[in-house]
Amino acid sequence: MTNGMTMSGWGLILIFTALVALLAKPVGQWLFALYEGHDTPLHRLLGPVERGFYRASGLDPAREQGWLAYGLHMLAFQVVLTLFTYAILRLQGVLPMNPRGLAGIGADGAINTAIAFVTNTNWQWYAGESVLSNFSQMVGLTIHNFLSAATGIAIAFALFRGFARHEAKTVGNFWADCTRVTLYLLLPLCVVYALFLVACGVPQTFASLVEAHTLEGAKQAIVLGPVASQEAIKMLGTNGGGFYNANSAHPFENPSALTNFVQMLSIFAIGSGLTWCFGRAVGNTRQGWAILCAMLILFVAGAGIAYWQEADGATLAMAGGHMEGKEVRFGIAVSALFSAVTTAASCGAVNAMHDSFTAIGGLIPIFNMQLGEIVIGGVGSGIYGFLLFALLAVFVAGLMVGRTPEYVGKKIEAREVKLAVLAIAVLPLSILGFTALAAVLPAGLAGPLNKGPHGFSEILYAFSSATANNGSAFAGLSAGTPFYNGLLGVAMWVGRFFVIIPVLAIAGSLAAKRHTPATAGSFPTTGVLWVGLLIGVILILGGLTFLPSLALGPIADQVSVLAHTAF
Amino acid sequence: MLKTFVSALRPSLVMTAGFALLLGGAYPLAITAAAQALFPHQANGSLIERNGRVIGSDLLAQGFTAPGYFHPRPSAANYDASASAGSNLGPASAALAQRIAKDATALRAQGYPDVPPAMVTTSASGLDPHISPEAALLQAPRVAQARHMPVERVEALVRAAIETPLAGVLGENRINVLRLNLALDGAGHAGA
Fold first, then answer.
1. Counted domains in chain B
2. Which residue among A211, A229, A352 sits closest to B31, beta carbon to beta carbon?
3. In a domain, B34, yes or no
4. Inter-residue contact A281 to A35 (CB < 8 Å)
5. In angstroms, what separates the C-alpha of A143 from chain B's closest C-alpha?
6. pLDDT of B58-74, one tens digit each?
7. How distant is the Cα of A59 from the closest Cα of chain B, in angstroms?
8. What is the pTM of this model?
9. Out of A131, A201, A214, A405, which could bridge A126 as a Cys pair, Cβ 3.0 to 4.6 Å?
10. What is the Cα–Cα distance from A350 to A341, expressed in whole angstroms?
11. Is residue A387 part of a domain?
12. Rounded to an integer, what distance in angstroms lies between the CA atom of residue A543 and that of residue A539?
């Protein structure tokens, strides 16, 4: 059996990666202006809206907050947003724009979905087109695609300030960060992007249903809606919650290879820019480039392995089965690339069904998520998650040379390392703990569609996805039950905020420190050695923690396939 | 700490309301208005009409079964454009292997000399509108026979319908089945 990899497939992966690197500086410069609170050309247009929001809220955007106040304001906002969407989903039946008369969502499903969208996860236990009205999609969900992304970027800004400031008590104003990112970055980009998508074929209408009469005399009910406006922010904000069940595999969400390529770029655009913004914020853009470099090496490795496996005919029970769950207009290379992009970032959109991937092709998305989605990562969450690993890496380097570790001009001491470990430990605790629980309880075992090791992979994927706030799935899992809605809801909340709070505490602790100038003895955090150390720490920590669970799932799956054992 | 949290409630409520109006209301409304003005065909689902009746969307597969039409890929969603879905069967799934073997046998019985992988696998959405040019050419003899058309004529229609990758790298060679079937009907011979 030969491998179907092609030069153009590899060419595409490399061109894509180069474009992501090229986006870092222009996007980063725009982000840096917002980070600093500088005016952009858009302030003239949207400035009144921004000021109006502050006035109505009784806020002074110039009044900065310490890390705890910043976190508490953020948290209060998230709680209110969760309740807002919970109410909309519960009341769907009596709310407007519901010509199909769809009923309200049950309590467990509604709270799961509200949490899913507030935490930037966008886990979907339901099929969007059959369960949600246009009002629920627009008002209940699209708003979070913006605000959860803006919140992630705000947290990243607070952490950047922690590194950049000296002997300071504050890390910024949450409301100012969140509002500015939404108004001057996400919203204008989405206006242009959504119209581009419409031009390429993505529907944008308030009509809900069209009935077609086919050439053979059958009827086909076609669900339409305001898809493009949701699709644009779904990708840019690394949200991933689709209008339709099939997500970006649906021809209405992702009609062509061109929209697909732009969707992949838009998933990474802001995350890539944030690495540059970090470097600029700490006064040395090479710090940002080093991070981006480590991220892209990990990314190409993952995408390459996924492509190699997906194109390999020997890795399936049935010859030719590699097109199961894939679309012809994308093909194998692009489907493998998309899966690596969407799980390296915390997007969770899919253009192919990961559940039907080869065993190792499906391992890559799981592993990407288990690393905490720090390879470019979610908007904001990717860079702050990565910086946690950077702290551990300088700590390891410090142990090796016997010096107090330093990073971008700050001494890294016990408090920061403890907090970083606390945040990173959330991932294995939640992923492995909940997976173990679901794998022994009857309510959990009722979930998987596939039998054998792949059924376990479906459970492991679900909790990896929820905890890492990704939202993609091995979608064979029947997750629309109170058991899964409840546990996955907890996993999403814990995976988001039990990381954010320690990150903010680190920001506060760093901001209060003196500047420590680099000396000849400082460990350099820009060169090849540093990039290698970062990758090593990430892979060793991630690998050691999750390898056993992967052995029970995808690796056992691969062994079964090679032994011609089907389940 | 509690005091700070409580003091955050007013901005939380106001911002939720304000952003709901802006992002959940004004933004999709504005995009819809602009989309309907600039790209009405695409914004309304790229629908195809014949004799004033909607027969389908340019972007969605339909379940053609008559021998005189080209057939799409199998669909886990039964071509239901209000319930997209893939099969989600995994690499070691016995159910998947059996289904593929059964479908392959059926296709050979229909006269396929060779079975292209995409024709025995369900797509991710269940609404994949495309098949590969090879999969279309394999169907050409059946279609030609059912329509009493010269097979060369049908093959010429297939070749004319091939869409190629953008800039040579983006996407795959493919054929939109519904559009090809419309071209067939337009070529002057009755369908089924």
1. 2
2. A229
3. yes
4. yes
5. 5
6. 999 999 999 999 999 99
7. 7
8. 0.96
9. A131
10. 10
11. yes
12. 5
